[in-house]
């Protein structure tokens, strides 16, 4: 129904997270009608993104390396005031931002790159488990200094997929002999006892203070 | 639009929790079409409810007193295997059931009968604060034996209303010198880091284990 | 978990339309705490309902017969200013109220008592198809006067179930040789072209005016 | 919190329709991790979009002009089998696609470019009302042939905004003396009588067939 040059771009935008064909079409009509200078600004920003951004060699967090193209670590891994005895394993980049916003965690991160649903070989291969183990065993091989891990926090979502992933990681990391913890469960802000499941409410009782 | 006898009952059903006029109308057509014996069963059950149910003199939990009309305590308050050093203050009857289902709390309860929104005099008067203080100070005056409180858990919802209520109760109970706790916060089962607010996620980090 | 006298009533309320066990429990605690005079008012209203309400012998609409216990027709069927050439077949009592509120239909009704999902024998037997045919063929047998049907409107929901039911009724009534119509389709108030399905939007084009 | 090069692009993506900062961030991490050849394909598609797409001089529909850069009309306006006595005024490009999919309209279109909310001067100026009038009066000035309008369909959404816009256009076009129609209202596929507003249900009765 659409001209091929539009349909092609609908297909590409439809692969973006959360985007379906209807939204993709709206993106395209938005781009078509954008004033030329705004369009160029958008195009340049995307081009610059790939040129400026590098992936941190320790934690896989993307960072801006345009100031120093030799830099291999993200600002968090470079920061000497972070607590280098703590490592928090997260699923994806935006989880890191969510946690930083709380200002209650001062340790290091590791971005795993996904979750396991079920225990499909395919899903497991996508996770950076091997990379994780290497960094825990020999952090000094990854351009970072002063790492002395005493606790590994598996910050998986308390969903079925997150649980399966956390259990898998826990089993893999156990032989390393470092304390492994998980995020506390309880009632979220705005939640109600009445709609809480038994596990959540039980944890809220145990974690009372 | 409806005959008065129906409209009257729509008005009464509309005062039931969660029921609006549209649902009330459907209740009535359901009742009209119920076979006579089912209708009588419903009517008898409602009549018996008021005759059999008494309110526990210690915790305000409704219980079935038809076996022993002299009984003043609900089965939980009567139960000697409950931990009588713990008192959990809850908003309403269904919260007690939610907590009992977790099987992780073995103490006593007190049903407060509502929450404070804002700090309206009207709302505060509806709460059984005075009754609560009397029971904490002199439990033996309320037909219960062996109470020796060491901890009072304010199981308020982590909503704005619940917070205000919890703060108010805490202030009232502080002079009694008993340890006061609240339910632990954290990620609920099925929740996702990405959508958690900063307070919830921060608590989840602090409550890790 | 609940005393049997409460659990029994939870089970009965759970059979009310739209009510689940959690809501049923809240109904019961509401009833327990109702002041005695309010409780008696509720009980009396329910008792009176069954005594006052009769089902119209022509259209199956419930009506208040307390003023005249001999009356067999509802106010609509009794009303000589209604257009007795039109009969509108509806699923349930509340649909009649919805249509009356529009003030744009002045004919008679017939309450079918359900819809067919799939074409299950069980569902079909619950519908008053035989009663419908009898009333169309010989309305004078059902206490109503002056009926001279020229059009039968099948006011089924434009859902899959409603469609199946409408097709079934249409096939049953066709031999009677009376014009059969359906409600017009189009965009509802508040709807948007963008989210309309093709059938709805196509009908909106054909029904433009 | 994000590096400036990422934050800049988050801001730009946040201006896309339906996109907020959280989704924008996910878009960027998606782009960062895209394999180089996929990234180049995306970039080329966007660049080509602006070079290939022209806006139809009659109806403002974007079309692919890469085959013939002299072409001024979109395929619909060029198509001699379309009914050139009908003009359908729509809000935006995706509405045209929605209508084409129904296969029940064979006339011409005009994309108005927005709706009026309230009657703000600002909103009105964004609409192509002047352009619309010019095309209705002198279609031959806009590269199109054989236009002989007998009916103008205002295909506004049946929302408050859409109604205001339709009334405004109707008032502007009335002096031209061409028949003006609107889309038919009624029950949408999947709708239910019970939840239909009175206007929609009334229209459904009037539009029965």
Description:
- Chain A is an alpha/beta fold and 209 residues long.
- Chain A has 9 helices and 6 strands; from the N terminus they run H-H-H-E-E-H-E-H-E-H-H-E-H-E-H.
- Chain A has a 4-stranded parallel sheet with strand order 4-3-5-6. The first copy, chain A, has a two-stranded antiparallel sheet with strand order 1-2.
- In chain A, helix 5 links the parallel strand 3 and strand 4.
- In chain A, helix 1 crosses helix 2.
- The first copy, chain A, is globular, with a radius of gyration of 21 Å.
- The first copy, chain A, starts with a helix and ends with a helix.
- The mean pLDDT of chain A is 93.
- Chains A and D meet through helix 1, helix 2, helix 3, strand 2 and helix 5 of A and helix 1, helix 2, helix 3, strand 2 and helix 5 of D.
